[in-house]
Amino acid sequence: MKICSSNQNVSSDQWPILISRFLLAYLNIPSTVAGKSPNQLLLSYTPRTMISNLHPTVESPVTATLPFKDGDSVNLKIGNAPILKGIVIRSLSPTRYLVSVAGIYKKVHLNQMSHAP
Question: What does the H/E/C string look like for the chain?
Answer without folding.
Answer: CHHHHHCCCCCHHHHHHHHHHHHHHHHCCCCCCCCCCHHHHHHCCCCCCHHHHHCCCCCCCCCCCCCCCCCCEEEECCCCCCCEEEEEEEECCCCEEEEEECCEEEEEEHHHEEECC
